[in-house]
Design a protein that fits this description.
By secondary structure, the protein is of the alpha+beta class. The chain has two domains: 122 residues, Sandwich (Immunoglobulin-like); 158 residues, no CATH class. It is 51% helix and 21% strand. Strand 1 and strand 2 form a beta hairpin.
Length: 317
Amino acid sequence: MRRLAVLTAALAIPAAAHVFSVSRSFVEVKGTTVTLAVHVPLYEMAHLDARSRILPAHFDFSSGESAGVREESSCSELRTDNEFRCTALYRFPSPVETLKVESRLPRVLAAGHVHFMNATREGRTETSVFDSSSSARVLRFRDPSFGERALASFGFGAAEPFRSPLRLLLLLTVALAARARREALIVGAAFLAGEAVGAVAAGALNLTANGIFLESAAALSIAYLAVEILFFSAAESRWAVTGVLGGIQGWALAVLNTAGETSLAFVLSGAAIVQAALIAPLVWVWLRTRRRPVEIGLAALLLAVGGVWFVMRLIPA
């Protein structure tokens, strides 16, 4: 029963979380009015009921002591762009100077979801990031300093591994690929190098991809590595698979970086440092507890999760 419970919990992870889940909104402040436009990929909307699909209801705006009153809103599906879009108008009793925004949208859409908001007032634009752990921002519509932008970008990258259980699964997969200390260094370096190359290449070539493609590729890579562990225990190419996983993660970071207008170098630095700090203790524990029966069991679990994850992303609910 215990093994069945563990397997059930593991297989439920792909259903509860996305690794690469992103939406955007655009806010324009003019005097006493605030206009909101929300763009969400259609595949992120499949599980929502009619009430939850009124996306502006998941945003609150206030300025000073006054809350914005939503006077009108509308939503529609754009099949040609594969997006669900909503617009809304909010009115305030006096001109808006600073704007406080609360967004519950990431919690409604998916665990690990990241929402980017671009807000404009009098020609100045401010970009904010919302996720399940950070739902409130104050927009002051001033140009950030280099240090503020660098710190925000570094923090965004450092938070990446914690936005979804599946992100931690990627790191666990890298750790399980190691059979010795030397190989641990190689597979870890391959993952981080692949991440950097994938991010820089995707950014330089302006490559875009939706979450379904990126998650499907990551799921297949995990499943392939699990097959290697199960049936080709002496194979020497595990570093290449972890490099591919890193490349997929880097591509996703580049997509997020473009949406959030952050600094890719600092995003990569934050992600790399935290990921290395998480992989190291996982490898340390694994190399001290590694036994072939345990390795087979964990690899089988990875294969099952990777397979279920792949199928679920190809056939959204």
